[in-house]
Target: LacI family DNA-binding transcriptional regulator
Amino acid sequence: MVTIKDVAKEAGVSVATVSRVLNENGYVGADTRKKVMKAMANLHYSPNEVARSLYKRESRLIGLLLPDITNPFFPQLARGVEDEVNKEGYRLLLGNSDEDVQKELDYIQTFVQNNVVGMVSATNTVDHELYNALQLPLVLLDRTTEDYPSVYSDGREGGRLAAKTILEKGARHITLMKGPAHVKPAQDRYKGAMEMLSEAEVDFSVFSTYSYSFEDATSWAKELFTKYPDTDAVIASNDIVGIAVLHEALKRGKRIPEDVQIIGYDDIPQCSLSYPALSTIRQPAYEMGRQAAQLLIKLIRKENDVDKTIQLPVQLVERSTTRKE
Amino acid sequence: MVTIKDVAKEAGVSVATVSRVLNENGYVGADTRKKVMKAMANLHYSPNEVARSLYKRESRLIGLLLPDITNPFFPQLARGVEDEVNKEGYRLLLGNSDEDVQKELDYIQTFVQNNVVGMVSATNTVDHELYNALQLPLVLLDRTTEDYPSVYSDGREGGRLAAKTILEKGARHITLMKGPAHVKPAQDRYKGAMEMLSEAEVDFSVFSTYSYSFEDATSWAKELFTKYPDTDAVIASNDIVGIAVLHEALKRGKRIPEDVQIIGYDDIPQCSLSYPALSTIRQPAYEMGRQAAQLLIKLIRKENDVDKTIQLPVQLVERSTTRKE
DNA sequence: TTGAAAGCGCTACCAA
DNA sequence: TTGGTAGCGCTTTCAA
Model:
């Protein structure tokens, strides 16, 4: 490993001088700079971030905590924060919590042990005591809360929009799927849809689900049609479940969207790959990730007048599982 | 921040002693140990990994380099390595390279700057000069090569299996999709299928694709049926493309699997969510990730007699896009 | 069985 | 404009 000392020797100057040209601060003569630069190039010198981090008490690392990258909504989110964070020279320490508080704790500990400068968390279990104790800039992603800076999309509006769409397209027997209780954004959209449905004059049923896993999605779908066989429209709790419902309907010989309309939520990439392509409410996941990163970086830099709550708009994407009016 | 010094003071011992109980090495008296433990608990002490890393010249971090986590095959892989690595107390520094050599370089630099103990790379652009210069334990994932430790699945066999399956089920006009040229595993499976097809007495066409993106998949599918309208079986380059082909076929009024059979590759989770559910060749992605992590850790520990090339078996998953014989 | 102290690579203060 | 050096928090020798 080539250190700052080696560079100093090669250039015939002191380590202090090398440090100065490295960090572009303090006075350093033009030709001294040149000598040092040359020495650095010769030796392929690259500063040791660990040593820097130790002294400055902060690294160029940012912690990203996710529930599970395996869930298709999160890779987009993650990519958004990564790309944005990279722009500013930061890198990501990644953790999947599986909604397990212990794992979350462990990761947070790792983050501080490694001097991360900030963290973004897309976890559902915001342990307030824990996060309050945290001395780090933190932004919550895909979560709405008063207590911490956060970026999220308008779940209530999304739910309303989903319901409104289904309503306008003449559904008579709507089944509203309620996502897992501990997933806050799922509850928001549920409430939004609920509001809209309650105001309208239609029959509807509520079908509760307790997970978002691929494996379970198919079972929920089966159960739904068994329980509510005359359903002619379902507002799914997310796209995965929506696609499962779609295929279950197809299996049962229903025509889509003539007999059953379906609207999903999220707009994960594979929506357009379902057949018929799933209509859905789009959350701008990649953009959410980017904005979360931007916000975090502003917080890290202690900028003034930063808006600590960013709500991104949600959008109807009409594809082929809703009627064309 | 509470440091080892604070603990030492609280316990009335020296920092050296605290360090000893922390690392469970060297002699330390039973009651001294107890005092120290208590002090650590009182102060909620958690050692600074950065300081440790600086002294030992290695962190508890492992670098993971991926092409793009947004591609549904990779989250599984990533999760596999994360889970395994966590078991041994390591954490992940994550990077997406987008198959861009410069980004890859930058990430690798970050990895060494942060004293990672090893890295796993699932990138296609193995720049040998670069990797050779690297002084780190490295394992290649989803890549077959003689030059570095690697874990991958048997692509050639997978290709053969896909072709064999299609052949046995009575296809007459097969279209074999060839994946992007720079993606080595895609070429392996292509070659395998090609071998099998060449030996058989059937007509077949080769259709070349240059990307794996969601957006492009649909275009490939359209183009395929325009170019080869009498195709009655397609061996897709991966599941995404397979699903796109499936839906394009459906759009064109073909019955699946009666008129057209389709076989994918990878077995990403959303396969079972397509309709009809996509038959495919399964790569054990999660397991591949785990094994890569295990191998890397063995390498890090300089264990002897470790098998540096791990080939995992591939497996036919018959669902509904291939005939039942 | 314990403590003092050097040193990991770097930054930043103070002096020259 | 430069260099010497203390010190970031930890581990590990060496001595006691």
Notes: Chain A touches chain B through 53 residues (CB under 8 Å). Chain A has three domains: 4-47, 61-153+286-312, 155-282. The mean pLDDT of chain A is 94. Residues 13-17, 20, 26-29, 32, 51, 53-57 of chain A lie near DNA strand D (CB under 10 Å from a C1').
